[in-house]
């Protein structure tokens, strides 16, 4: 292991189960045009290719693969990437060394390594080890579908201006072989005998024909199954199985949508859409009207793994926006939450409203009691106490009417279970309909107040215009929200439980976690296990990570970003 590398860094063969983490780590690479995301599952089936992952604390933080070419005498390294939060810590060098060691041990016939780099990536240390074989100019343009015909005519017009088209001949495999058996042709067209196809550097060894021609059916398939036949239609109950079929592995199996799908269909403030190709679901997205109808929250976006990287996400999102413009012209903002490292194209449209740390742990059924005891001991060992109080619907309303929201909600945004809302009255009613458990602590002057137990269920919230009940809750303090655990696709009775923390007091945060987890376990089905997602201010990350030490981590994302844009 290299000196800068994390001490727990492990190198393992890549598997299909690692795909979602690989995709998450690859966000934004090549400006969102990363072909490896599309090819990952295909590469796994290639007997000439070896793919490796670097993992830290069980989470994918790096990737590199090599492919044997030139009849097994050369290895082409490809796809190197490191998770943004792990860059500069030696992960790339550790991956490269591991691949080299693997080559030496398992493929002693390999005498050369070949790869390509963009000019900005070339460092002196690289050129000290490698020979520069060739460089080529790269020109890239984007042609929207609606402009395709127009651009073709433009290019044809420009060709006519320089003497017209020259005849082109499509070569058969045998003609390609004869062409490259001519050394004069090879020298004239391929400097140093090197051919680069789709950024893949090959010599003109006979076997390269096999590689280039096996790629053709994939390209043809992409062309024939393009976005021309994708339809966006309202989602129905009958689409449930189709949406679930494209959702495997999302959030590492802790996906909320299987449990929420039918509930969402019944919500009059929500619209859901599916993208279909050849009659099969290949994409999903939805929006929910919030803030009294002036904001739409986009939720649940997903695309079938075999269709990613082909523009479907952009098409279904644009369809949602068009539906908003047509059906709800009063909507002026779109808001969403997502994990860390959004692509640059997204950030050019959205503004970052706030970000919070995400800490997630899994508590198996046979460890529930021991975990509660552990957390209780840690809370009791803290200096001072911070009683946690449950809030009635009337107390919630009074608290919001008498507090300054920025004290706990930067820019007035409250996120509950990844749903970003303003503190508008209508949103408080929405949260009560979701069965949210509101808990509060007065961090300036703690006092004792009865906790909410399983027998004390929140009542529906009535929002009288002049409701001013007497309340012990003062502005500020510390607040936590949760909804009952929901079943997720991991099986074995696994449930998801999100706890959203508001405030910066570490003692209060730990007390609230203990209280919320205890309440969740009261209603957890017999034999159930739970994955807890804790959302807290970044300043609390270190304290809460230590507080959860000894509980198995469950890695999905490290940050929760709230993004917003005007429309």
UniProtKB/TrEMBL annotation:
Keyword Lipid biosynthesis: no
Gene3D superfamilies xrefs: 3.40.630.30
SUPFAM superfamilies: Acyl-CoA N-acyltransferases (Nat)
N-acetyltransferase domain span: 9-139, 230-358
Single annotated GO MF: acyltransferase activity, transferring groups other than amino-acyl groups
Record keywords, A-Z: Acyltransferase, Transferase
Record-linked InterPro entries: Acyl_CoA_acyltransferase, GNAT_dom, Hisat_C
Domain of life: Eukaryota
Protein name: Probable N-acetyltransferase 16
Species assigned in the record: Xenopus tropicalis
Gene name in the database record: LOC100495706
């Amino acid at each position: 292991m290299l000196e800068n590398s994390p001490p727990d860094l492990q190198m393992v063969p890549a598997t299909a189960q690692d795909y979602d983490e690989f995709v998450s780590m690859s966000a934004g690479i090549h400006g969102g045009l990363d072909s490896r995301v599309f090819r990952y599952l295909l590469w796994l089936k290639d007997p000439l290719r070896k793919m490796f992952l670097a993992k830290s604390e069980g989470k994918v933080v790096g990737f590199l693969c090599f492919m044997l070419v030139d009849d097994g005498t050369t290895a082409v390294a490809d796809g190197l990437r490191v998770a943004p939060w792990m860059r500069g810590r030696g992960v790339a060098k550790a991956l490269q060394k591991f691949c080299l060691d693997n080559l030496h041990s398992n493929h002693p016939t390999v005498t050369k390594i070949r790869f390509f780099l963009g000019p900005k990536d070339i460092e002196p240390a690289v050129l000290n080890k490698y020979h520069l074989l060739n460089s080529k100019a790269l020109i890239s343009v984007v042609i929207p579908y609606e402009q395709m015909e127009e651009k073709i005519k433009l290019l044809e017009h420009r060709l006519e201006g320089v003497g017209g088209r020259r005849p082109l001949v499509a070569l058969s495999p045998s003609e390609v072989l004869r062409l490259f058996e001519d050394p004069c042709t090879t020298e004239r067209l391929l400097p140093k005998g090197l051919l680069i196809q789709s950024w893949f550097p090959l010599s003109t060894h006979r076997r390269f024909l096999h590689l280039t021609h096996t790629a053709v059916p994939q390209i043809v398939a992409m062309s024939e199954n393009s976005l021309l036949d994708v339809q966006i239609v309202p989602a129905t109950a009958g689409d449930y199985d189709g949406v679930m079929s494209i959702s495997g592995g999302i959030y590492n199996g802790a996906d909320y949508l299987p449990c929420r799908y039918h509930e969402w269909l019944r919500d009059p403030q929500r619209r859901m859409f599916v993208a279909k190709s050849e009659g099969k679901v290949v994409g999903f997205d939805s929006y929910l009207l919030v803030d009294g109808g002036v904001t739409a929250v986009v939720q649940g976006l997903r695309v079938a793994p075999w269709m990613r990287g082909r523009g479907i996400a952009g098409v279904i999102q644009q369809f949602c926006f068009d539906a908003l413009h047509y059906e709800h012209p009063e909507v002026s903002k779109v808001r969403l939450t997502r994990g860390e490292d959004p692509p640059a194209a997204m950030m050019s449209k959205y503004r970052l409203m706030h970000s919070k740390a995400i800490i997630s742990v899994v508590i198996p059924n046979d460890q529930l009691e021991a975990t509660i005891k552990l957390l209780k001991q840690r809370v009791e060992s803290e200096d001072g106490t911070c009683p946690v109080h449950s809030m009635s619907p009337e107390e919630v309303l009074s608290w919001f009417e008498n507090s300054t929201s920025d004290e706990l909600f930067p820019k007035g945004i409250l996120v509950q279970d990844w749903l970003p809302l303003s503190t508008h009255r209508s949103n408080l009613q929405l949260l009560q309909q979701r069965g949210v458990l509101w808990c509060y602590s007065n961090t300036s002057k703690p006092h004792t107040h009865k906790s909410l137990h399983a027998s004390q269920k929140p009542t529906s919230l009535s929002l009288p215009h002049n409701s001013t009940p007497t309340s012990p809750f003062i502005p500020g303090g510390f607040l936590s929200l949760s909804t009952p655990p929901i079943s997720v696709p991991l099986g074995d009775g696994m449930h998801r439980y999100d706890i959203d923390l508001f405030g910066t007091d570490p003692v209060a945060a730990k007390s609230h976690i203990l209280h919320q987890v205890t309440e969740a376990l009261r209603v957890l089905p017999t034999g159930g296990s739970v994955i807890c997602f804790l959302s807290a201010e970044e300043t609390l990350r270190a304290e809460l990570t230590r507080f959860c030490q000894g509980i198995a981590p469950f890695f999905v994302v490290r940050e929760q970003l709230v993004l917003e844009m005007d429309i």
